[in-house]
Amino acid sequence: MPETIYDVVVVGSGPAGYTAAIRAGQYGLRTALVEKDSYLGGTCLHVGCIPTKALLFNAELWDHLKNAGEFGIEGVGSRKLNWQAVQERKSKIVSKHAKGLEFLMRKNKVETVSGRGRVSGPAQNGIHVVGVEGVGNSNRQLRTANVVLATGSEARMIPGLEPDERVLTNIEILELTAVPKSLVIVGAGAVGVEFASIFRSFDTEVTILEMLPRLVPLEDEEVSKELARVYRKRGINFHLGARVEKVERTKSGIAVAFSADGKAQKLETDKILIAVGRKPNTEGIGLEKTRIQPERGFLKTNEWMQTAEPGVYAIGDIVLGSPQLAHVGAMEGIVAVAKVAGRPEKPINLQRIPNVTFCHPEIGSVGLTEAKAREQGYTVKVGKFPFTANSRASIVGEHEGFIKIVSESAYGEILGVHIIGPQATELIAEAVTAMELEATVEDLMWTIHAHPTLAEAMLDASNSVYGMAINV
Ligand code: NAD
After folding, report:
1. Is the distance from the beta carbon of residue 325 to the nearest atom of ligand 1 less than 6 Å?
2. Is the CB of 357 under 6 A from ligand 1?
3. Residue range 361-464, CATH number
4. Pair 40, 179: CB distance under 8 Å
């Protein structure tokens, strides 16, 4: 039988890789998807987005039950948390979607190959070889015209620490057999504030240590301030400008020495979560034999996700200068495969990427913060509308937060939208679409929003840019 020559071999089956493989299949390309783990879906599906958001939903329900009396629901005073059932529900969701991915691969005629993939160097006569080291002796060599690298990332550790049952990363924290009494979280990015939210809801004593001067430091400053206000109210402790000096195991837990506000401080805790960012998985994938020169492990690409090695693409968390978000990786996969297939493509615009953090209150943002817009020389006009003045927010009992629109004053170009509050992770989609279609603030002001909805707050926020919000 003649050896298969693939059009595309994708290495790594996270959201970037599986999306690229499915799209390649849809285009009728001969496609293989190489995965080292025994399941498809990568970090996002197994130890990231999906299980975390499942736990966040449990936390939200639990919080609603705490306040059941306010909604006139009585008799739930003796509620009890069955942590094992919470974990089982989370695992079921993950398994269901992992099976769904296997189905999608079959449906789109993508061959899945089990093992660790590695490129063998530049193409010979236009053909690359991807070596796959499988379990046992099941090594294979895949011949292909194009390679898409989508090997993802892993949690960065504080030097000298190793994860175990007390020192946790996003992986170990999802496997806890009980809710910890106390939890110190290092880092107030998405991972840090989401787990703070989950475990505080379940009554853990949570303390966040963040090196920079604010929580969620990449968000608009007013969003960070609002999150800090609500977290304080929720009893979540945090130290900003904090420097972790030493993490030591003690008989009963962990001792953390840190400095903040110019003072040396110490905390005793049951568990510690390290959430200080993620490093790309680009070692051991054969790059040394190619023209690709990683920068701090990240791979440089052009707008079509092509690396310096002809025929080799990089997508997802390994791409230099690209935010490490599942939805960005997925779109990069679509861009790369459109290029391979010679189909119409459109490069990623970094200013139109939704950032969504599922802490409580939720955060959704897109485009420039107010400070960044000013820094870039725009004459800025800002509108802000609080959820306290939105009737749907009162109905669902969630009054925290606001929608803030940052616009350019001359033509009303929307430069950025920043939401903190109920359903912020869903509401941001309207702002992303508006910006993608180059709508102005005035276009939003003339767009009819259904009443009573949270989305109406977007209408009010756009009106407030010109001091004309109806509801405040
Ligand atoms: P991050 O880079 O978003 O945040 C890390 C935080 O840790 C930063 O605020 C940083 O200032 C702080 N930090 C770094 N070193 C520190 C130290 N030694 N002491 C104290 N603070 C320190 O990283 P993350 O939260 O680990 O998330 C990793 C990636 O995964 C990010 O790109 C994130 O956007 C993504 N992610 C996204 C979501 C989501 O979209 N909802 C959820 C989880 C993770």
Report:
1. yes
2. yes
3. 3.30.390.30
4. no
239 has catalytic annotation: no
Residues 298-352 have pLDDT tens digits of 999 999 999 999 999 999 999 999 999 999 999 999 999 999 999 999 999 999 9
Cα(239)–Cα(382) distance, integer angstroms: 30
Is residue 387 lining ligand 1, measured as CB closer than 6 Å?
no
Q: What is the DSSP string of 121-135?
A: SS-BTTBEEEEEE-S
275 C-beta closer than 6 A to ligand 1: yes
Cα 266 to Cα 160, 163, 232, 255, 259, distances in angstroms: 19, 21, 20, 7, 8
Pick 5-154+279-341's CATH classification: 3.40.50.300, 3.60.110.10, 1.10.287.990, 3.50.50.60. 3.50.50.60
Ligand 1 atom, smallest distance to 317 CA: 32
- Can you read off the two tokens belonging to residue 343? 């189909």
Strand partners, 184: 207, 272
Residue of 64, 360, 418, 451 with catalytic role: 451
* Distance from Cα 217 to the centre of ligand 1, integer Å: 9
**Residue range 441-462, pLDDT digits in tens:** 999 999 999 999 999 999 999 9
- Domain boundaries along the sequence of the chain: 5-154+279-341, 157-276, 361-464
Fold of 157-276: FAD/NAD(P)-binding domain (3.50.50)
Q: If pLDDT is split at 50, 70 and 90, which confidence band does 79 have?
A: confident
Is 361-464 the same fold as 157-276? Answer: no
Q: Is residue 434 in contact with ligand 1, taking CB distance under 6 Å?
A: no
Between the CA of 332 and the centroid of ligand 1 the distance, in Å, is: 21
Instruction: Report which protein residue has its CA nearest ligand 1's atom 40.
Output: 356
- β-pairing, 312-314 with 140-149? parallel
Averaged pLDDT for residues 402-406: 98
Residue 54 CA to ligand 1 centre (angstroms): 20
Residue-wise pLDDT for 224-267, tens only, equals 999 999 999 999 999 999 999 999 999 999 999 999 988 999 99
